[in-house]
Design goal:
- The chain is an alpha/beta fold and about 270 residues long.
- Helix content is about 30%, strand content about 20%.
- The protein has a single domain, classed as Purple Acid Phosphatase, chain A, domain 2 (4-Layer Sandwich).
- Helix 3 crosses helix 5 and helix 6 crosses helix 7.
- The longest helix is centred in the middle third of the chain and has 17 residues.
Amino acid sequence: MAVYAIGDIQGCYDPFRELLDAIDFDPASDTLWLAGDLVNRGPKSLKTLRFIKSLGASAITVLGNHDLHLLALWVGSVRFGKRFGTLEKLLSAPDADELCDWLRHRPLAHYDKNLDTLLVHAGTHPDWSVKKTLARAAEVEHELRHGDFETLLEKMYGNAPASWSGKLKGYKRLRFIINCVTRMRMITVDNKLNFTHRGTPWRARKNILPWYEADNRATGTTRVVFGHWSQLGLVVLPELISLDTGCLWGRQLSAVRLDKRKPRIVQVEGQRT
């Protein structure tokens, strides 16, 4: 009864299936935690999404920024362009509505008390505890599932506001939450979101830092598992696991076992697209 977390797949179906073989994944007894960005850029987004959906409760996935962008394209909140050509086959598939409706019902954050582990795509704000992270994510999830999700998917784009306040309301509040859990990498020393740096954290200027290096993070000793940051790569620490190892850039697709004292790491070669 193994629990494995896997980094950004992004439509790289063949390495994904190879990785599942390498960890001897059994959907009848094992569980996958997928760090989001299931689709886009890789060659087989449609096949990937169909397969993950077929796994049912044995695959837990959080939404990534590319997954949300697929949903925005699906409802026409943004225009389709060549940059997202890898999603064309998915969006024109006969089961596109079924797949996208399933996707919009995925969470933005997942927590397991027994493992004391939080799964998000990009990160969580340093001021948010696990409980608050789940509550903030639930606000967006409710709007995606039960509200005017077409408008949300249109309004989610943009980098402002940069600072968290409990007084934020409406789409500014929802946008900030989405940016934290699906796009964030760097923050300022006073915990403002900063999207100017996309490279490795050790090459950032002195007044910004990775979100996970903030002093006195409210998640405490809870282990946070995330993807999104291929240039950071694989990091496995007691309270932090970074999983995006650049599969679609020809590097690796990585899995880390979560339910053992010493995490097992398994990697397969990715595919350059």
